[in-house]
Amino acid sequence: MIKDISISSSLQDYLEAILNLKENNGIVRVTDLADYLQVAKPSVTETVKTLVGLGLLKHAKYGPLVLTKQGQEVAGKIRHRHEVLKTFLTGVLGVDPETADREACLMEHAISRDTTDRLVRFLETAVKPEPLF
Fold this sequence. Notes:
By secondary structure, this protein is mainly α. It folds into 2 domains: 9-73, Orthogonal Bundle (Arc Repressor Mutant, subunit A); 76-126, Diphtheria Toxin Repressor, domain 2, CATH 1.10.60. It has 6 helices and 2 strands. It has a two-stranded antiparallel ribbon. Helix 1 crosses helix 2, helix 2 packs across helix 3 (41-53) and helix 4 (69-91) packs across helix 6 (113-126). The model has no long low-confidence stretch (mean pLDDT 89).
């Protein structure tokens, strides 16, 4: 297993976005990521440099963004936490999917990583969402 690293919520958002774009489009470029996250391309370029420096991403100038093995694993864990929280919000609390998606992200970033991980583990084992209607 690859060592788990601690990264900022902003970097987590970038990794999750890259993973989603890769799965939906097959290839991810800086412009795609800027559009997806609704941020300026220079901001994306700087963040990409940080992710490359952390060993989570590969990027040649003007080339596509490619998650490394570690980047793929970290992004997958981030998305999994997000999806579990979103499923709880929609399936148990009846929150509409768009609001649940937004608020799952807010929840991830408002509480500590340890607390988020504990909540996700609890929800994975203790809560079995049933249809509300």
